[in-house]
Amino acid sequence: GDSVTQMEGPVTLSEEACLTINCTYTATGYPSLFWYVQYPGEGLQLLLKATKADDKGSNKGFEATYRKETTSFHLEKGSVQVSDSAVYFCALSGGTSYGKLTFGQGTILTVHP
Amino acid sequence: EAGVTQFPSHSVIEKGQTVTLRCDPISGHDNLYWYRRVMGKEIKFLLHFVKESKQDESGMPNNRFLAERTGGTYSTLKVQPAELEDSGVYFCASSPSYRSSEQYFGPGTRLTVT
Fold it and tell me: Cβ–Cβ of B101/A104 closer than 8 Å?
């Protein structure tokens, strides 16, 4: 079946540091890929998405590129802020998971001033 | 436009008791999903409704879980009897179409079984 693997957390950074959270996937067909974010006390929000190979999703300074050759969708940001502290989830839909989302285990990011 | 709402936000029950979680999707969204996150692990799919019909319930862990969506509006997820391993955060999400690439999530219900 489909699966998503995220880098182990938690990740602790200082403000303005660079961020990379690795995500790789296993799926048949051509899944869509997502990053969701959960801020403290809130529900999951879609951060960005990419629906086909080589697409780049971007939002709020975050970027991720759909790499089919390496089955990856790494999340990056050049300069993090304290307000970026949250839990980040990589997910896919499609493949054999048509309609439903398959998530990674989540990565806790804490940014210190 | 109101988002997805879930009730209660937190429930603490004893093993063997019954709990019912409720989800109100975004108005007009035919697709409704339930997910669960247990003890900091990955969020796992439970089931998918299209209107009032169960499209996919392959993620339901066992027959102690019963989901309904009468009239194709709000949905309930009942756990009876609850076990310790049922503790976790239960998320509901909705989307206008299963082909939609975005699902809108509620804030979740944190269930603690003692």
Answer: no
